[in-house]
Design brief:
Structural class: alpha+beta
Strand order of the largest sheet: 1-2-3-4-5
Largest sheet: 5 strands, mixed
Number of strands: 5
Order of helices and strands: HHHEHEEEEH
Number of helices: 5
Strand content: 25-35%
Shape: globular
């Protein structure tokens, strides 16, 4: 009987130990892009986007942004219009990190938030990229 009670106690303790991990997972919003737009510290152009909407995209397995989305940014920039694009990258642990890009005369501004990264510092980071073709390289250099 003592052995069974010890096993039950150990099971209960382990269950309680994993409870915070489960609750951390439940704090991830269903739509991290939409949720990031409502964060109090979100840049103004993220929370109130203007210009051409090039969409919210899911990255492919090779982490490449779709050609259609990049063409949308390029076409808008060539026309002198502002355009924006949003996407989510997953951390090694599977936490979403929303990214937002907007065209500028000098290239692109890209911001991201680690608000939903369980191991992240929170807050926003910003990168300036020379151009749309350099977007992936620019982001890889910033990491």
């Amino acid at each position: 009987m003592l052995k069974r009670r010890t096993r039950l106690t150990a099971t209960a303790v382990l269950s309680l130990a994993f409870l915070p991990l489960l609750s951390a997972c439940s704090s991830t919003p269903a739509d991290p892009i939409a949720a990031a737009r409502t964060l109090a510290d979100a840049p103004g152009w993220v929370s109130a986007p203007t210009g051409t909407d090039c969409g919210d995209v899911d990255l492919t397995a090779d982490r490449g942004l779709p050609d259609k989305a990049l063409k949308c940014l390029s076409d808008a920039r060539s026309a002198g219009d502002e355009a924006r694009l949003a996407w989510i990258e997953l951390t090694t642990e599977g936490d979403p990190v929303p990214y937002f890009a907007k065209t500028e005369e000098s290239g692109l501004t890209v911001v991201s938030t680690s608000a939903y990264d369980s191991l992240g510092q929170g807050g926003w980071s910003e990168n300036e990229c020379a151009g749309i073709a350099a977007l992936r390289t620019c982001l890889a250099d910033a990491e």
